[in-house]
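Lab meeting prep.
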Amino acid sequence: MIYYVEDDAAIRDLTLYTLRRAGLEAQGFASAGPFFDAVEQSVPDLVLLDIMLPGMDGLAVLERVRGDARTRDVPVMMLTAKGTEYDKVVGLDAGADDYLAKPFGMMELVSRCNALLRRASRPGGGAGPEAAACSCGRISINPLTREAFAEGVGVELTLKEFELLLKLVENQGRAFTRAQLLEDIWDITYVGETRTVDTHIQTLRRKLNEASPGAGDMVKTVRGVGYRIRCEEQE
């Protein structure tokens, strides 16, 4: 089920019609209130969200979605007229998984929705059949089951946090620039100021340390470059 929050009735109705014709279940809402009422009844598989909404704007809605344990892992795509690279980064910094600027092509929208739904529902979060469990010191991660552990303790990660940790563990010891991680994990090439990568790294470290004190410290900051993960036996 896809929930779409958009105050423009014409855009909302056309988008819902397109999604349903593509075989996807979709329900629309004109504002945050009815959307959250529906979430209380049933958590969606994907949320499409406009930014400029009456009352609570889309970024505030996204913050609340990410702050709720029931919805924090639900993929969210921003659909908005605010389409500059800076606006896209603001949305991603706030926790969106994808961002599509208006006017957008309906075929592209359906394709992106299907991609997010596949990655969220597939056990490996998008991993192919050749993926195998890998480890780095006390951290282990399984792309097929989309599970991460620190000294055997499960670590609950969002889709992007999981993909970020997997990227680092599969390339342990290699330093990635923020620009590389933005392009590989978030599919954007923005090179200006953004806290997207830094914020996710901080959260990732915290969650790993909560599971096993010191595990998060294995994610190293490479000054002037970006980040890498270093296995304890490599120290």
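Slide two material, second protein:
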Amino acid sequence: MKRDLIDITDLSVQEIDRLITRAEDIIARPEEYREKCRSKKLATLFYEPSTRTRLSFESAMYELGGQVLGFSEAQSSSAMKGESVADTARTVSCFADIIAMRHPKEGAPLVASYKASVPVINAGDGGHHHPTQTLTDLLTIKQEKGRLDNLVIGCCGDLKFGRTVHSLIGAMSRYANIRFTLISPEELRVPESVRSDLLERGGIDFRETTSLEEAMPELDILYMTRVQRERFFNEDDYVRLKDSYILTPDKLRTAKHDLAILHPLPRVNEISTAIDDDPRACYFRQVLYGKFIRMALILMLLEVE
């Protein structure tokens, strides 16, 4: 029976740990994996723009010896003719062994998974889920901190529309002794559903603040996010909030020496480029880790040993 990945909670903690272990083995022994997906094809169905996620999936499949087909915008697909996501998924199942889909509409990859005869990976659906980014984040934290428990994690910026933050909270909440500090303007606080369903119901220690400087000294992880223009209905609200939090060297003065700074990217101006060479800046290493964890995921869903 085929397996899909739509939400990070589709994976157990044990499965996540096995994926991370496999990714670490890929990092250590890349030559052992170069032919693992020979003759296999990945279809990348991207209905909205993407650089890192799409190219990461493609690079992952090529490094496994497989092939890639698909489209990088809705305008170059039959969606422009009115074809449904369900019909596209059924059609592409005839050509590919596995599908990675990004769509601006929440739930579209889930619909595709019902109709596709091959595994479907959600590569981001609106403001909803982005599970492979979360796997990337977890591998990054493991590589940088050596553990996935006993951490204080600060999430800063757009916590209302940021699907990466919602998925990260859901995943890290299942590890021991995790505490969240949620840093945002009042208008961009985490949704009530995340607060009640993931944090309060799970008994997770968290606090909310509007001050990055006040939160900085306690953090082991700082997860920065951009204020996303594409999630706003009102341009004035976007302009007013877009520069709410900008991380500069001065704001890192009180940070721990081994703080890990993550960002799902793309960055606009919420992290100063003056921080890029700071050893605590992990966000470009994070991009590379994304390729390795997606290689591990493709192998798992295709049941390749």
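Talking points for slide two:
The chain is about 35% helix and 15% strand.
The longest helix spans residues 283-301.
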